């Protein structure tokens, strides 16, 4: 189990460039299975979860060549479907949540897709019903081996249909879209997710010859085509990492420039941090965070009541940033209620922050009230274990602002989502060592 040792209390300075978006990468990489032609993908983040998916594709028989840093070509012209029934696939696929999105492309192109029950972050229940109900509506037959926790869908030919999703699941929408592009006839998906990463996937598929309309809305119409061709695609910067660096700059009272953030795809993120009193300046396509030497003050609602920050499907705030926002609030002036609606275990890391001296009341599994210190007292260094990717980085930000030397164990969780995070933080002045 890897460990970070962090000496906190240092101001940071300089520029940091966000990696390619992890959540987009997991969708885009699965989509290479939809064509036998070469597909080039740029700005792929070098992180554990993405590298696991690339290895799975290689084991499936996809020909992969690395062109340069973050740039690969993929050619799925000789896919080994027998691998899907192998013990190795059942083991490797289980360790990656994003492996579920292999099913849609495999079902569309080859008439069958299988997956072991995927793992991932321990943040609460993450059901797969939306995915498989969509496949069934397209005409697939579903089967489930309870002994091996192994799912499967099969179909001679998928047929387009109308469907109203029970939730606006990003991965569920992506999976169904990838299945529907090769289905016979027209598919209409209502209550579809419309996150920028899903828009990126749809635009890429259209460049490959798909016919998807309504991109960016919650109503997608897909006219099935017989086959797809190759293309080149460049991924967006990771909006969760951008939010992490905004929070880091504020908590450490540092001056920081975040480069090439794709402002038009950030949605509510700058607005929410501004509600916490953080000065988020736009400079061309960069974000500049000045030193908050006088701290930052949380806004109240216009009637004077306490601010509530909650997650919601796009264009609402992504749930992946709520843990960062919670940590940042611990040093603000004022109070805020954090309401995590989507995952019932994601706030359980706050006990570590309370140990560090933060004033937090965990109301229930979904809500926490934070009373900010206004930098009148610093958080205290401690020893922690990273429970998941986002909580792990939140604890890392807390440690970088704290007085003394903190230790974070189980940093493999952080490595799953953040590329060379210790090296990049040292480059802007952080005192962090990987042990």
UniProtKB/TrEMBL annotation:
UDP-N-acetyl-alpha-D-glucosamine binds at residues 97, 320, 342. Pathway: Cell wall biogenesis; peptidoglycan biosynthesis. One of its GO terms (biological process) is cell wall organization. It is found in: Cytoplasm. It catalyses: phosphoenolpyruvate + UDP-N-acetyl-alpha-D-glucosamine = UDP-N-acetyl-3-O-(1-carboxyvinyl)-alpha-D-glucosamine + phosphate. Phosphoenolpyruvate binds at residues 22-23. Gene3D superfamilies: Enolpyruvate transferase domain. The active site is at 121 (proton donor). Keywords: Cell cycle, Cell division, Cell shape, Cell wall biogenesis/degradation, Cytoplasm, Peptidoglycan synthesis, Transferase. The keyword Transferase applies. One of its GO terms (cellular component) is cytoplasm. SUPFAM superfamilies: EPT/RTPC-like. Its EC number is 2.5.1.7. GO terms for molecular function: UDP-N-acetylglucosamine 1-carboxyvinyltransferase activity. It comes from the Bacteria. Residues 7-425 form the Enolpyruvate transferase domain. InterPro entries: Enolpyruvate_Tfrase_dom, Enolpyruvate_Tfrase_sf, MurA_subfamily, RNA3'P_cycl/enolpyr_Trfase_a/b, UDP_GlcNAc_COvinyl_MurA. Its main location: cytoplasm. Cell wall formation. Adds enolpyruvyl to UDP-N-acetylglucosamine. Belongs to the EPSP synthase family. MurA subfamily. This is UDP-N-acetylglucosamine 1-carboxyvinyltransferase. It comes from Allomuricauda ruestringensis (strain DSM 13258 / CIP 107369 / LMG 19739 / B1).
């Amino acid at each position: 189990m890897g460990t970070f040792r962090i000496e906190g209390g240092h101001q940071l300075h300089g520029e940091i460039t966000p990696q390619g978006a992890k959540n987009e990468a997991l969708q885009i990489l699965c989509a290479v299975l939809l064509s036998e032609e070469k597909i080039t993908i740029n700005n792929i983040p070098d992180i554990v979860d993405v590298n696991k998916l690339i290895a799975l594709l290689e084991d499936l028989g996809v020909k992969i060549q690395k062109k340069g840093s973050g740039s690969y070509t993929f050619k799925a012209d000789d896919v080994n479907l027998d691998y899907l029934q192998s013990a190795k696939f059942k083991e490797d696929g289980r360790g990656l949540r994003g492996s579920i999105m292999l099913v849609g492309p495999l079902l569309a192109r080859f008439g069958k897709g299988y997956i072991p029950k995927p793992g991932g972050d321990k943040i609460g229940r993450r059901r797969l019903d939306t995915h498989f109900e969509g496949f069934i509506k397209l005409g697939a037959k579903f089967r489930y081996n309870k002994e091996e926790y192994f799912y499967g869908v099969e179909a001679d030919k998928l047929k387009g249909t109308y469907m109203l999703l029970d939730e606006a699941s990003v991965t569920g929408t992506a999976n169904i879209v990838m299945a529907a592009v090769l289905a016979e006839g027209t598919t209409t998906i209502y209550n579809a997710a419309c996150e920028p990463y899903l828009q990126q996937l749809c635009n890429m598929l259209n460049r490959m010859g798909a016919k998807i309309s309504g991109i960016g809305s919650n109503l997608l119409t897909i006219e099935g085509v017989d086959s797809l061709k190759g293309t080149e695609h460049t991924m967006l910067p990771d909006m969760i990492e951008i939010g992490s660096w905004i929070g880091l700059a504020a908590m450490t009272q540092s001056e920081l420039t975040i480069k090439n953030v794709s402002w038009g795809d950030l949605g509510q993120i700058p607005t929410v941090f501004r509600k916490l009193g953080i000065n988020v300046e736009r400079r061309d396509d960069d974000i500049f965070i000045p030193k908050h030497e006088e701290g930052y003050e949380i806004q109240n609602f216009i009637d004077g009541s306490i601010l509530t920050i909650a997650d919601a499907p796009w264009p609402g705030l992504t749930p992946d940033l709520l843990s960062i926002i919670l940590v940042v609030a611990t040093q603000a002036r004022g109070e805020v209620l954090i309401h995590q609606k989507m995952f019932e275990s994601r706030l359980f890391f706050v006990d570590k922050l309370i140990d560090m001296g933060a004033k937090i009341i965990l109301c229930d599994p979904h809500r926490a009230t934070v009373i900010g210190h206004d930098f009148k007292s610093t958080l205290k260094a401690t020893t922690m274990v990273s429970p998941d990717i986002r909580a792990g980085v939140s604890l890392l930000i807390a440690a970088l602002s704290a007085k003394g030397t903190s230790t974070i164990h189980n940093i493999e969780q952080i490595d799953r989502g953040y590329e060379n995070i210790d090296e990049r933080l040292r480059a802007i002045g952080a005192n962090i060592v990987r042990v």
